[in-house]
Amino acid sequence: MKTEQNWPVLDFSELQDTLETLHQWIQIVGKIRLRTMPWQNHSWHTALYVSAHGYSTHGIPYEGRIFQIDFDFEHHKLFIECTHEETLSIDLRPMTVADFYDELFQKLESMGIKVKIHGSPNEMEPAIPFKENTINRSYDPVIANRVWQAMLKANGVFNRFRSEFIGKCSPVHLFWGAFDLAVTRFSGNPAPLHQGGMPNMPLEVMQEAYSQEVSSAGFWPGSKDFPVPVFYAYAYPSDASFGVQKVLPKEAFYNPEMGEFFLKYEDVQSSKDPETALYEFLQSTYDAAVNTSKWDRAKLEKK
User: How far is CA 35 from CA 56, 98, 134, 167, in A?
Assistant: First the structure.
């Protein structure tokens, strides 16, 4: 399947069924990485990454070997590679979450990779155990490719934005909990204890993830409860004046209920220069966060 050079159109009504199935599939793969990677601060060891053809775990150390799981949305396969083993694959096709789960773990077992994961999804309701989920079974290759291409475009802008910060900054992560692509900058200062609130997410995980002051931004393809793909930006903790700061582009807005700035994906996709529009959003929302929270910018940014 040929990759488009322009930012793809995303209509959530077209995305929903495939997106909900993919979300379950990437949770399964993400949980495998969670159980096999050495722990990293803020749960960075759990994340997936945008790759040349889809999403990837990158290399995972395992008993003196390395294995890697890759979603390929051009050839519509899941590849499982491991040192000294033949590469195995699963055809990405309409199939239940339960069938995907069984096929993946059978192939891992055949390669000598024995992993046990928490068998239910996080950050979603209802949390049907993967082995029992015969509801989510949709896979449209055109939609899957389109969602990946949108993340591929965002990934490039996020990485350019990340490069200009010399303080602690996360890689550009694909977090499987909410199915969002995110990049986070840190002030170097501790943050107040987070109160949690995400469904099926342990409080201690949330508290460690937000143990330091952050300015974070990302892309989220939407859900049935919020059926609009968006870019978002927030600060933790945030000053009371954060939400009244002027941000760019003009289509961006603040949502008091969520405590975040949003920019609809369609406003970026349809603009004359999507990369510049998104970059302006990242930079101006970061400015809003650090100016109102009084970060020491001289120590954190390139001069």
Answer: 16, 20, 25, 29
